[in-house]
Design a protein that fits this description.
The protein is of the alpha/beta class. It has helices spanning 19-31, 44-53, 70-77, 95-104, 118-191, 196-223, 227-230, 232-247, 264-285, 324-333, and strands at residues 10-15, 36-41, 58-61, 86-90, 108-111, 250-255, 289-295, 300-307, 338-344, 348-356. The strands form two sheets. The chain has a five-stranded parallel beta sheet with strand order 2-1-3-4-5, sandwiched between helices. The structure holds adenosine-5'-triphosphate and magnesium ion.
Length: 366
Amino acid sequence: MLINSHTRQIRLLHLESSEQDHELVKFALRRSGGTFDVARAQTLVDFCAQIDRIDFDVILSDYRFAEFTAIDAWNEVQRLERRPPFILLSHAIGETAAVDALKHGINDYVLKDSLSSLVHVIGRAIEVRDTRLAKARADAELAASQQRLAELTAHLQLSIEQERASIAREVHDDIGGALAAMKFDLAWLGRHSNDAATQMHISAAAEMLQHALGASQRIMRDLRPAVLDQGLVAAIQWMATGFEKRTGIKTTLRTAEETASASKAVQLVAYRTAQEALTNISKYAQCTAVTIDVSDHENVLTVEISDNGRGIAKEDLEKPNAFGIKGLRERAKTVGGWIDISRNAGTGTSVIVSIPLNGPDLPTSF
Ligand SMILES: Nc1ncnc2c1ncn2[C@@H]1O[C@H](COP(=O)(O)OP(=O)(O)OP(=O)(O)O)[C@@H](O)[C@H]1O
Ligand SMILES: [Mg+2]
């Protein structure tokens, strides 16, 4: 690539003690047709003053000076935020010095008697620098956007859990309260009526009422899991028992350690992972057995939910309208954890959530 002289002026600093060599460089640059704004430094002090003041696009430097070398100048450039490319422009300096210079990271090396290649080398060095800066900018933007996404996910999840907890309270206080009161009234009616037909209706109503009470308790537990009150293992045990009852799929919980050291936020992430994995199993796995392993071995909380069904396919994980597993991954990240999925056709699916127990914590106020 060559420098586009019409669109860009190149601010160049030439560290050179010889007046004659400096003039030769200026001449070579002028002849190339490029537009250069050339400054010159002769001492290290002057060099430092200029690079601090001006944002140069490129630096050319002779190698050996009376009291310093180009390596000293290079070291000074390192403290700049936007480091310009640094090109050695000297007479032959010997292989060792050249290798040493490149090892330090100096971008290129041009011999004073091949000035014809100078403009090309400058153009290339600037292009490499621009690409590097553009990439660094893009990386920083990507990292910032990922950070914003993670914060939004954490915020949304906290809001969802708070909302669920408040609905659970409403179900408990309003519906649960009203049903309990009706139960007393039905009992009173039963005691004060001798009519067989009335008694039959009362007992049918009591049965329906019991059913409604059971349903409201189930809804409450789903909304505000027992994990918040009784710990992860008890909550998963309850979930596993309910799942087996509902689906007829044999479900075994294996747990070696107690997971009391995990925070509520971590336990809730583990719980919701198991919940989504079981929902998926009931929808897709076509299996006959499920195993849930809970462990906090080596200070990492792991919950593994495995089925012996048809196995999840790679494409399944990329389905556009499926958010269960994607949500689990984001959710795990909010507490410093991650999700692994093993997908083996014929041998079923395993969903594993792992969360280091000394990781970052989420605020919990459900
Ligand atoms: N245990 C499993 N066995 C077989 N296939 C599975 C299993 N779990 C998930 N899958 C497949 O992976 C896909 C993605 O699951 P995911 O939970 O992300 O989305 P979904 O359940 O389809 O939708 P959503 O969870 O958003 O309601 C499912 O559509 C299904 O095809
Ligand atoms: Mg799902």
